[in-house]
Amino acid sequence: MPAPLVNPLLSIVIPVYNEREWVAELVRRVLEQPFTMELILIDDGSTDGTRDILPTLADAHDNVRVLMHEQNRGKGAALRTGFAEAKGDVIVIQDADLEYDPRDYGKLLEPILDGRADVVYGSRFLGGPHRVLNYHHYIANRSLTALSNALTNLNLTDMETCYKVFRREVLDGMKLSSDRFGFEPEFTARVSQARLKIYEVPISYSGRDYEEGKKITWRDGVAALWVIMKSRFDR
After folding, report:
1. Rounded to two decimals, what is the model's pTM?
2. CA-CA distances (angstroms) from residue 167 to 61, 76, 89, 179?
3. pLDDT tens digits for 4-49?
4. Which of 142, 146, 231 is nearest to 190 (CA)?
5. What residue spans define the domains of the chain?
6. With contact defined as beta carbons under 8 Å apart, do 109 and 165 qualify?
7. Fold of 9-98
């Protein structure tokens, strides 16, 4: 069983792409949480002025660092850049928009802090409050999760969730190569292959529509199918 953790340093890894309107508020909400933390923001080639805002956030807070990709490479690539720089005992993946609420950190961390889990997924489908949005997105998420479960022998309800929280050592020797949203099924396959202890907890979700800046598309769903199949056999 994993050892309990007392007052660990959290590395909040935040990929950022064209989030000029939201990223400063997101950073404010994260920093309000009562944990010892570092924030690592990775700008993934933003073109909307986000890159001008991020250095001011780093200047204003000693525990905020900014890394830059000169070109857009995708969420998975940004996360790998952030993971390589993380110094914390526990890593929290946080999107830069306001869909996921940092006030959920406490419940996400609990199974790790008390020694029950190596990895915790925050599920949008376990009864937490959520904004009502597109039914087709819901079906796509559940279908991808079901296929991933069939090939990993897990029983997750929300494989595609942003909120994945895990002990730093989970990354040791883990092979990750997906550059875009294929990170989600690839990470899940690697966690399953490593036989790590996994928990799910309910979270709130304030989803955006495309007019509000949502970026994932049907093409990413098709790509995720390929990654699910590939990760089953590629170790």
Report:
1. 0.90
2. 24, 18, 6, 22
3. 999 999 999 999 999 999 999 999 999 999 999 999 999 999 999 9
4. 231
5. 9-98, 125-161+173-235
6. yes
7. Spore Coat Polysaccharide Biosynthesis Protein SpsA; Chain A (3.90.550)
